[in-house]
Amino acid sequence: MKIKLDPFVVSIIVVIVLAYFFPELGREGNVIPLDTIVSVGISLIFFSYGLKLSKHQLTSGLKNWRLHALVQSSTFILFPAIVISFYPFIEQGAEETIWLAFLFLAALPSTVSSSVVMVSMAKGNIPAAIFNASISGLIGIVLTPLWIGLFLQESGVDYNLGGIYLKLLLEILLPVVLGLILQQYLGKFVQKYARQLSLFDKSIILLIIYKSFVESFDEGVFTSVKIRDLIFIGIATILLFYVVYFITGYLSRVLKFNKEDQITAQFCGTKKSLVHGTVFSKVLFPESMSLGLVLLPLMIFHAFQILFISFVASRLSNRIRE
Q1: Is position 101 within any domain?
Q2: What is the pLDDT of residue 158?
Q3: What is the CATH number of the domain that holds 175?
Q4: Total domains present in the chain
Q5: What is the spatial distance between Cα 286 and Cα 123, in angstroms, rounded to a whole number?
Q6: Quick one: pLDDT at residue 55?
Q7: Is residue 42 in some structural domain?
Q8: What is the distance between the alpha carbons of residues 319 and 43, in angstroms, rounded to a whole number?
Q9: What is the value of pTM for the model shown?
Q10: Distance between CA 131 and CA 54 in Å, rounded?
């Protein structure tokens, strides 16, 4: 089977290269106000997210509670628990920052669009996928800062949880609520221009990644990280995915899910949202911490999850025809 490389993954690689060779646009004092553009863009992303949220799917989806409990437990409990189990072996310094980057990855909500697309391709339970992917983003606004706050405070970083929730409320939750309120008026517009809005979302994410890596390269963050550590990050990220993927599959069989529900549990319960990750990183971490290094495991995870789940979904889609 021929595997296509996701264009967005390629775009991320290109943006990182641009940040290294052409960092001028991402530096402070530049004529283009990237910080303002990103802040407004973040709010618009979550405003359109609210416009797309299906109230019917959210209410009707509550019936399959065992599936939803497994997906959300995998997303917000299993993932963090695996990473936290290594905390006693972590030393302060660069090693602690890398571990925090993994905890950040583990604490993030699931992605919406790719989860639903992949579940649909694999002939899984699509309504349950829509419900879990949608509700995951809302739960993440509450739980992700809590997980990160527990350990940032221990590392001596000034972590104002109240201020962070206020910022999340104004930049993320409020736009979602406004989107839900205006859904009856603008819902058709969002459906009509879904492709253009998706491109806008990805453009804002790429801007955040560009600026984060410009700052990291300027501060020499990656020159202080050894090659073996970068290799370790790649291997550990992929192993984390596989462990959660097989645990969710095992629990699905123990709970006697049908094939459609098992697909949904494994696909939605192993996804992590790059959208939420890039946005949350700007809010949750102090300026003294390198966002480029913090986002690195997430970007590797994002690329690998798309590659692996696409392959599995393509294979599963053929089972109906055979």
Answers
A1: yes
A2: 58
A3: 1.20.1530.20
A4: 1
A5: 42
A6: 66
A7: yes
A8: 41
A9: 0.78
A10: 8
Residues 179, 48: contact at Cβ < 8 Å?
yes
Contact 237, 297 (CB under 8 A): yes
Query: 2 burial class (0-12, 13-18, 19+ CB within 10 angstroms)?
Result: exposed
pLDDT < 70 positions in the chain = 1-6, 29, 54-62, 93-94, 112-114, 153-161, 219, 221-224, 288, 317-322
Domain ranges, residue 128 = 8-317
As a whole number, the mean pLDDT across the chain is 82
Phi-psi region of 187 (alpha: psi -120 to 50; beta: other; left: phi over 0): alpha
Asked whether residue 242 is domain-assigned, the answer is yes
The predicted pLDDT at position 315 comes to: 77
- Rg over alpha carbons for the chain, rounded to the nearest Å, is 19
Q: Which two tokens stand for residue 68?
A: 């939803």
Residue 1 lies in a domain: no
